[in-house]
Design brief:
- InterPro entries: Aldolase_TIM (IPR013785), Radical_SAM_PqqE_MftC-like (IPR050377), rSAM (IPR007197), rSAM_sf (IPR058240).
- Pfam families: Radical_SAM (PF04055).
- Keywords: Iron, Iron-sulfur, Metal-binding, S-adenosyl-L-methionine.
- By secondary structure, the protein is α/β, with parallel strands linked by helices.
- The protein has 2 domains: 109 residues, Sandwich (Immunoglobulin-like); 228 residues, Alpha-Beta Barrel (TIM Barrel).
- It is 25% helix and 22% strand.
- The chain is built from 13 helices and 19 strands.
- The strands form 3 sheets. It has a 10-stranded mixed sheet. A 5-stranded mixed sheet has the order 5-6-2-1-9, with no helix packed on it.
- Helix 9 runs parallel beside helix 10.
- It starts with a helix and ends in a 41-residue tail after the last helix.
- 42% of the residues are buried.
- The chain binds iron/sulfur cluster.
Length: 460
Amino acid sequence: MEITKEFFENVNLAYAGFFDHHELDDDVLTIGGWSVLFTEGNSIPKKIYILFNNEVIATSEEFNVNRDDVKVAHPEAPLNCGFTIEIDNSFKDKLDYLEIFVESDDFLYQLNKFNGFLSQVEISGKCNLRCPQCPAVMNGFHNKILSKNDLDLIEPLFQQARNICFDGFGEVLLTKEEDLEYAFSKIPYSKDLKFHTNGMLLNKRIDLILDNSLPLRQIIVSIDSLSDDLYPVLRKGGKLSVVLDNVKLLKEARQERGQRFPIIIPNMIILNSNYKEIRDFIDLASTLDNKLELIHLYDLEKMDDDNSDFMYENEKVKHNLKDYKKTLNESLEYAKEKGVEVYFSGSVTSEDEAESEEYIGEKREVKECHYKSNGRCLQADGKFMFCVWQTSPVFDWKKTNNVDPSKNPRARKVMEMLENNEIPFECSTAGCPYVYGRESSEVKDEQVIFVKGGWSATKA
Ligand code: SF4
């Protein structure tokens, strides 16, 4: 049975359980997991759907209520519902691709898989703006785009991923309509797909966006400043009035169609020159979908460019932490009053405390890095990384015709080193919470130029 788009529109993407084991016995394949109800009064799950590529391959209405191991892990949950279900054994090699949905009278949600990873795929390396804080402006644009063959190669990765974003160094909406349509067509409706855009071309792609929502659930519009003086400096080549009009147009067209998706989220990279504007961005978010994304400027080591109005080092809020934190906390209070959800993306979160002047945020052990097992970051020029903070690529997925790190010797070595709490040279000086700018002791490949802080560098 093929499942409709409407089914997925009602899925709550919050994790509420796991698909956590499978057994193959006498050629009978059994999979199992559990869902947890955190709220008293919810009706218990009544049906489980197992899906493969938008097709229902099995359903069950039986639950072995209250699995003891789940009770230990989630003592706060009033009820947990374990399940086991037999499926066709031809799926034994495709377990990573299965998706499990749980339905009750009140809700429908998807169970997490231990390997449901994030996949970041750069659709285009071309951009129509030249924002001074962008690593591609500093290092040079590679200007490569994904071909249909590339997308065919990446398709299994899309199917296994839970979260997918089309971000990279380029502007997604510069991609030709038919190519973008092809990229959307590779992604099952159940996925959480999003991308960032500078918003300048939104008006030209409204139908395409709305036709493909789902799988597209979020569009994040990078604006950075709502001031007529600062915007042209931070978003060089863009026009604030055009972006704001486009965002409004998209929202109106979505409403006219009666669609819930994509949710529209303004975004700002927090800098010394704009952090006083967080409150204005909260006001803007309250006119859209009540969500605001903040990102701290990557802590790249970069010589300031005398020819630019933008002084990279001076823009890092770590040099003005006390006032920044005060402003941020007041703004977050204001957001609560307005009912706007503010979230941080990137290496630093609002909860993290500055532990030194050198790095804002919490420091963790390298072996805690989960990107090695669930991060996949593919640039359109062929660079494969586990995350955006890696300072050099791990391998070339285009040349090797492979997007699976377990099939690449260097990627396996990187995973092994991280597991052993060692910093591989690909992560040397990364601005992530695990490396926080430290150097690797591994001898580095002379052909690679490192960019301190993050984003994979250009090969020499
Ligand atoms: S750079 Fe940091 S987050 Fe990325 S793979 Fe290395 S340790 Fe993990």
